[in-house]
Write a structure and sequence with these properties.
There is one protein chain. The chain has 17 helices and 15 strands. The chain is of the alpha/beta class and 430 residues long. It folds into 2 domains: 240 residues, Rossmann fold (3-Layer(aba) Sandwich), CATH 3.40.50; 160 residues, Rossmann fold, CATH 3.40.50. The strands form 3 sheets. The chain has a 7-stranded mixed beta sheet, with helices on both faces. The chain has a 5-stranded parallel beta sheet with strand order 2-1-3-4-5. It has a 3-stranded mixed beta sheet with strand order 11-12-13, with helices on one face. Strand 11, helix 16 and strand 12 form a beta-alpha-beta unit. Helix 2 packs across helix 12, helix 3 runs parallel beside helix 4 and helix 5 runs parallel beside helix 7. The two termini are 21 Å apart.
């Protein structure tokens, strides 16, 4: 679900230049961890560059999980830690970062990520290194992946296009403009969006990729207005969104805007709200994101640990309702429980149990926290972990997807206004 880049080819896989990492260690990730060694979860995402917001969002999930796991006695005699690995949102930096991480983190048990910025180039490396990864990439290339160590807890970008179209159709819109950046991640939403909106009886009257970070979009605004849309679908970066919508407001006045989950991230909301005003945001803007309701026992456990992690997670409250932070939290718990189920910290041994501890089945004990799962496994029970992001039901390609929710921004706070069900998406995507 992230900004994607075109694969740079097999040559990238052969890069060996080093990239800075905050981690340390001295051996590969393929075997079990030495007795007493701290198990490492790599936060493998951009912490700098255009998508620098992705990294802190991941920290908001990893740190609370580690806090609770360590407080619960750890895993098989080991404490755990989160280690930031900055991919910079660029495959040329991410490939050597992945290589160095696998070579130097002696107790690496898995990673959160990669994002769409670097997934095509780095997922094969991590897979070959037997490193379980919970990708936040939305690229359709992973819809039917054969990478045995790849897992995805959030919907692919092509699914998001269906959800946006269904939400607009429910609101009665018939004419739409598609305003998406010219990067591969944004454009990956467009084919299914156009297909679904057309199938539902609508017309996409404007659909041209936007060059990002221009000083003015006046000509694009004029072209869009001439097409007479009723709604604008969008995914562009914060600067582009602020400039485009400000000029639209000045030349014509705003119209309803339906954005992707990228437009629900704090940097985008801050930039656009500063440009068009909080009142206009509340009136005209809605964003679609994977449905992860901030309620239930799993979420309550997550949120309590998150808010208690202010020393390591700046402004932790901003991640309380973030579906990506929630599923990153779930991913760490799943890996820890899989290690307990396999009685091994070796990824090659516990990888298969990632499916075991999440798969629903009659007679299983449903658990909503690491502590409950650890106790149930110790008692000889089979478990189904249901996390802060909801039930995890992997298909044969290790993808678990669900519904979407629409959110508005009112007085600086997200307000949920409705949802699109998984059944609705399934029906239109056939």
């Amino acid at each position: 679900m992230r900004h994607a880049v075109t694969a740079l080819g097999a040559a990238l896989v052969l890069l060996s230049a080093a990239c800075s990492s905050t981690g340390s260690g001295s051996s590969s990730a393929g075997g079990g961890s030495p007795s007493g060694a701290k198990l490492v979860v790599g936060e493998f995402n951009p912490f700098s560059g255009p998508d620098a917001a992705f990294g802190p969002e991941m920290v908001g999930g990893c740190i609370p999980a580690i806090r609770l796991i360590n407080a619960g006695g750890g895993v098989l005699g080991h404490q755990m830690s989160c280690v930031q690995e900055d991919t910079r949102g660029d495959p040329a930096d991410a490939v050597p970062a992945a290589q160095k991480m696998m070579a130097t983190e002696s107790s690496l048990v898995g990673v959160l990520g990669p994002s769409s910025d670097e997934a095509l180039a780095t997922a094969p490396l991590l897979n070959n290194g037997h490193v379980p990864m919970f990708g936040d990439t939305g690229q359709a290339a992973f819809d039917h992946t054969t990478n045995a160590y790849f897992y995805r807890l959030t919907p692919a970008d092509d699914v998001k296009g269906y959800a946006m179209a269904l939400w607009a159709h429910a609101a009665g819109y018939k004419r739409a403009a598609a305003v998406f950046g010219n990067d591969a991640g944004a454009q990956s939403n467009v084919p299914t969006l156009v297909r679904a909106f057309t199938q539902l009886g609508g017309t996409v009257v404007y659909n041209k990729p936007f060059a990002l970070d221009q000083s003015s979009y006046r000509s694009e605004v004029e072209s869009i207005l001439a097409a007479k849309p009723q709604v604008i679908f969008t995914e562009v970066d914060p600067q582009t969104g602020a400039t485009f919508l400000s000029e639209l407001q000045q030349l014509h006045g705003l119209m309803p805007v339906i954005g992707t989950d990228v437009t629900l991230q704090a940097p985008w909301l801050k930039a656009v709200t500063g440009s068009i005003g909080a009142g206009a945001m509340a009136k005209y803007y809605e964003g679609m994101q994977p449905y992860a309701p901030p309620s239930g026992p799993a979420w309550q456990t997550y949120n309590k640990a998150l808010l208690a992690s202010a020393s390591q997670v700046p402004k932790p409250g901003q991640w309380s309702t973030d579906p990506y932070s929630m599923t990153d939290y779930d991913a760490v718990n799943v890996m820890a429980l899989a290690m307990l189920a396999a009685k091994s910290t070796s990824p090659a041994a516990f990888n298969k149990d990632i499916m075991t501890v999440t798969k629903p089945a009659p007679g299983k004990t449903v658990v909503t926290s690491f502590a409950a799962g650890k106790a149930a496994l110790a008692a000889g029970k089979q478990i189904q972990y249901v996390g802060a992001g909801g039930p995890i039901v992997f298909d044969q390609w290790h993808n678990s997807t669900g519904a979407f929710e629409a959110a508005k921004q009112v007085d600086g706070n997200p307000v949920l206004v409705g949802s699109v069900s998984a059944a609705q998406i399934a029906a239109i995507s056939r």
